[in-house]
Amino acid sequence: MSRSLLHIALLPSIMAAYVQLNYPINQQLPPVAYVNTPHQFRFAPTTFQSDSQTVQYSLVNSPSWLSIDSTSRTLSGTPRAGNVGEISISVAAAGAAGAVATMDSKLLVTIDEELDTKVNITQVLTKAGPLSGPTSVSIGSSKPFDISFPVDTFISNGKPLTYAATLSDHTPLPAWISFDASSMHFAGTAPSTGSAQTFEILLVACTTPGYAASTVSFTLVISSHQLLFRPFAQTITVGSGDDVHVTDTKSKLFLDGSPIDDKDLQAVNATVPSWLKFDNKTQALSGKVPSGIRSLDVTITAEDQSEDIAQLSTHFVFETDLFASELDQLNITLGEHFEYSVPRSSLTQDDEIVSLDFSTLSDYLRFDATKLLISGTVPHDFPPGEVSCSRTATSSDGTSKDTQTVAVRVSSASSSASVPAGKPDTTGLRPLYPVKNEWVS
User: Beta strand 144-148 with 154-155: parallel, antiparallel or unpaired?
Assistant: First the structure.
């Protein structure tokens, strides 16, 4: 009898221990994995359901190049040319008391180049409402919204594109957000809320159904209040020998259209390098600029008592005695001869001695210091991607020396046709900052 009672007592805990598949990976639009490019995908927290507080994830009979981080639910690895195609993977989720569920999924590995984007998120969102950051639009509680992306948001590699949208964790959009895939149009009415809520959204472009070839993201901030920096972005030029000293940040923070009172602020923070100081009370930035630094981006984040959040993006440009400007990103196509004349105007003196360090491209590129000419051919088997090079200028008397970073983008012919060699890359998602000391409103 006592043994039967023990079995009955244990029955609820045994029955409660479960793990089950809820939201398969292939419904989450996993990103395409590109050959010789590090791949990473964090699947949704709702992929499996379980009564366990912790679930351990592992891969079963999956390709050797792929691994999983159980804590973050992240699949990662670098596929090679022999892995091209749609591959099968199995993810096992283990909960308490031996409960296990397995999910069979697919990933796509391709030799194609990633899709480029040329959309300016800030310009798109400005039409929808006031911005609390370069990619965040503020929507009032219970207010309608309307956001449309241009048809050329993604640059096709010759394949037809289809579009989809999810939240940033790859879960479906809430019911109050509608998305028209044919026009890349979002609309809806924000929910009623007493405190601020944020929803980060992914606009997804697919060249193969079910797989994300490229994405852009933006954030809806829903609140009954509006906490905003006006403007939300600025560029400040610091002259040679000068130090950073910005004291007017606090006056640019507004709550519901009026300058904010200290009592309405919960916190103000900024992540800055060790040489730069940020005063949380006055919101002032100050510091002595170290040698060798050419630019710096600083984001100040403010939070009010209602948990509304506003961000101010500040782009610092530091002038030097030897460089008048930075070089634009250089764009090199694999297998094609490359030439680029470094503008003499990027130097402050006519008799400077200039050299370039091409890093991993040193075997293929050369620099003529007399003509300021970069030339060479990068072979087809060089892995596409970004390469950080540098140029150094030395004064004619040898008393001054300065170095700055030169970004080089190496691409295959199919992905680089729209970006001329040596010209700046304007297809990325970086916020567009104004020219010297002008403000973005």
Answer: unpaired
Could you tell me how far CA 422 lies from the centroid of its own chain?
A: 24
How deeply is 323 buried, as exposed, middle or buried, from its count of CB atoms within 10 A (0-12, 13-18, 19+)? buried
Q: Give domain 330-416's CATH superfamily.
A: Immunoglobulins (2.60.40.10)
- What does the pLDDT look like over 216-234, one tens digit per residue? 999 999 999 999 999 999 9
Architecture of domain 2-110: Sandwich (2.60)
Superfamily of domain 116-223: Immunoglobulins (2.60.40.10)
pLDDT band at 435 (very low <50, low <70, confident <90, very high): very low
Distance, in Å, from the CA atom of 189 to the CA atom of 159, rounded to the nearest integer, reads: 34
- Rounded to the nearest integer, the mean pLDDT of the chain is 87
Highest averaged pLDDT of the listed ranges 232-246, 287-301, 375-389, 416-430: 375-389
Using pLDDT thresholds of 50, 70 and 90, give the confidence band for residue 389.
very high
168: alpha, beta or left? (left if phi > 0; alpha if psi -120 to 50): alpha
Question: Which CATH architecture best describes the domain 227-320+434-440?
Answer: Sandwich (2.60)
Tokens representing 140 are: 């009032």
Measured CA to CA, the distance from residue 173 to residue 155 in angstroms comes to 25
Residue extent(s) of CATH 2.60.40.10 domains in the chain? 2-110, 116-223, 227-320+434-440, 330-416
Q: What is the pTM of this model?
A: 0.69
In one-letter notation, the amino acid at residue 75 is L
Residue 399 has pLDDT above 90, yes or no: no
